[in-house]
Design brief:
This protein is mostly helical. It contains four helices and two strands; from the N terminus they run αααββα. The chain is elongated and about 55 Å long.
């Protein structure tokens, strides 16, 4: 959106989308982590999540800085689009592992299926 039309309203619309998604994404990841590992292992999982978050931010900032310096400022936005396209092809989870969730009376979430075991041991 910003790369194709760097005007006031498209930029404001894109920034609004970024703000809305970032305010929802963080609490969602925290809730998933808490549901997967429980209160006992939550601190360790959250620390690991934030470590990978920070490392990803560093890699993205360095990559975009190099692209902006050596190629063009618009190249930064095209870089983001290029890394989004491969992810779009993986949105069909219909053939993936089936998870079942159950809320208990004490507000704990039980998730059954192969995915929680994999995520909780990463």
């Amino acid at each position: 959106m910003i790369a194709s039309a760097p005007l006031l309203w498209p930029v404001m619309a894109a920034q609004t989308l970024i703000g809305v998604s970032s305010s929802v994404f963080g609490p969602t990841v925290v809730a998933i982590a808490l549901g997967l590992v429980g209160r006992e292992l939550f601190d360790r999982r959250q620390g690991r999540n934030q470590t990978f978050n920070s490392a990803g931010n560093v890699v993205a900032a360095v990559s975009m800085g190099l692209i902006g310096y050596y190629l063009s400022n618009r190249g930064i936005f095209l870089f983001v689009v290029a890394f989004t396209i491969p992810r779009c092809g993986t949105s069909d989870h219909s053939s993936g592992p089936k998870l079942t969730t159950t809320w208990h009376a004490d507000w704990t979430l039980e998730i059954r299926g192969p995915l929680p075991r994999v995520l909780s041991t990463c």
